[in-house]
Please model this.
Amino acid sequence: MKAHAITCLVVGAGLFVAGGRFDARPAGGSAVSTAAVANRAPLQPGAFQLLPLGAVKPRGWLRGQLEIQARGLGGHLDEFWPDVGPDSAWLGGQGEGWERGPYFLDGLLPLAYQLDDPRLIAKVKPWVEWTLTNQRPDGAIGPPKNADWWPNMIMLKVLTQYQEATGDPRVVPFMTKYFAHHAAQMDASPLKEWAIYRWHDELLSVIWLYNRTGDAALLDFARRLAKQGFDWKSQFADFRYTGKVSKADAKLNTHVVNNAMALKMSGVWWLVTGDPDDRRAVDRQLATMDRHHLLPNGVHSGDEHYAGNNPSQGTELCAVVEGMFSVEHLLAVVGEPALGDRLEKMTYNALPGTFDGDMWAHQYDQQPNQVLCSLRPRAWSSNGPESNLFGLEPNFGCCTSNFHQGWPKFVSSLWMATPDGGLAAAAYGPNEVSTTVRGNVDVTLTEDTEYPFRDRIAIAVSPARAAAFPLVLRVPAWAADAEIAVNGARQANVRPGTFHRIERTWKAGDRVTLRLPMAVRATRWFNDSVALERGPLVYSLRIGEDWRKVTDGMKHPARPPAVDWEVHPTTAWNYALAIDPAKAAAAVTVTEKPLGPVPFSPQGAPVELRVPGRPVEAWAMVDGSADVPPRSPVDTTGPDQTLTLVPYGSAKLRITAFPVTAPARH
Ligand SMILES: [Zn+2]
Model:
């Protein structure tokens, strides 16, 4: 399916709309469109196009997850955390005037509109209104005391989503004036510090605007911006950071959040340049990061600089949500199905694994092998002693304000538009998408599933009238023997690791069903350790958890109603798996349990794996973390025990990368 990735752009005739043709919808008199907007020449068309905010709405358990976020910190943070409270300088007050207000909005806004939640929409509006009505005559935006381009880049992402959800006609002229201002000022006031490493986040909004106005000055501005930005392509052409960096070597180019954001740089820049080497740089960067820093939970290490493959190193929460956002855009640009697999792995494991079940507390750093969360110095590259506590603001408050975008933007990315007027399932989860397909036909697709906990997906297709358009369905690389059927008729040539294309005339009542068999598989990690995976989920040893409130010693203690927590283990964790990794499926018993309201909690785990294991007495804690897994195979004594593994996101204490016993013990 890579073949359909380029060439045939159908402008103005179907799903892609160049130059701002809007459907008139009765939404408060505003023009709201749920149609994708194509990349306008001379930009590369890209493989897919993201749909506007509001086209995809969560259903089922996924809606429940967004509601958990809304009931938790996500929907209440501004009520008691001053950095995003009513005195924010982004609301005209005297308070924080840098990144925290825009970060909060970048997730609160899509959450509000995806849930159609009037309480949350009412929280969003004053921020947007203050920004839109306080642009200076020269085009400058945001708090006058801020002299950094970086936080404005975040607010632009907020405003593009706001325009998509509401059709507010002020956004396009506001952004036009702002970019003219930035272009006029950029020689005298070049990008500095963080903005140098994150320039491509502004590029996303420049491209968004160019696709709506066709103003060639924007592409000139993009090229000047690139000259001031860090060249990530060069860093990965000759990569020097093949392990954990020392504090002395830690710089902004080894920073985990900058690196997570930079995963999309070469791909998004390729839309402008069309240079095949920029396109190739995408794969080179991902492969290099995976080789040296990938962890079994699907994200790269960084606590908060490159930290290598040891599963006791951490990953900062900001890097999880920014990495997801990067992969969402990369998938749209290059259309590789493996990026959908990667996105689901990050979203369904690393994201929930670093929150408590009700999303009132989060970590700064999570560990794949996380056996004790406590206030003490650890072998992080540079982070402080609070970093793996669950709380309001452990270590530093960036993640407190930035985590909000994770789930909502994932929902926005479940479906994407194809260049020939169809729809692509980029990732799976229960949802409903309403948009416009080839021939300007409105269509709604309702996807019912308990994926990723179950292997069946049912998609009801409801076009306003019979319409010919392609449905492009991702078949994950792990889904051997995947089956796809249309109205019960099984499709031929369904191959793992591809997008399966169904081109036909669809009519109301058509039904597509998928079965994506989730055989348990063993994957190899640090020191030949083994992780067990099943579908997009990674499984971790369930460890008894004792949650203890932290009352002393925090730099920024939680304010009520938030609480800071240590989590202490009440059961053993130092086990080897007594299996032959090549025959993992035969050694594991899978138990599906009812899908409850809080699947990402130890009690609510919807799937359990039972697998034989043995204690490894020599494997102990070092400085509060599990020591590196002893190199496999390991010698053990004593009889087999039955270990229970649950989804990584459900286990807040966990072993994910296990040693395995010597073959005689399997
Ligand atoms: Zn952070």
Remarks:
- The chain has a mean pLDDT of 95.
- The longest helix spans residues 149-166.
- The two ends are 40 Å apart (CA to CA).
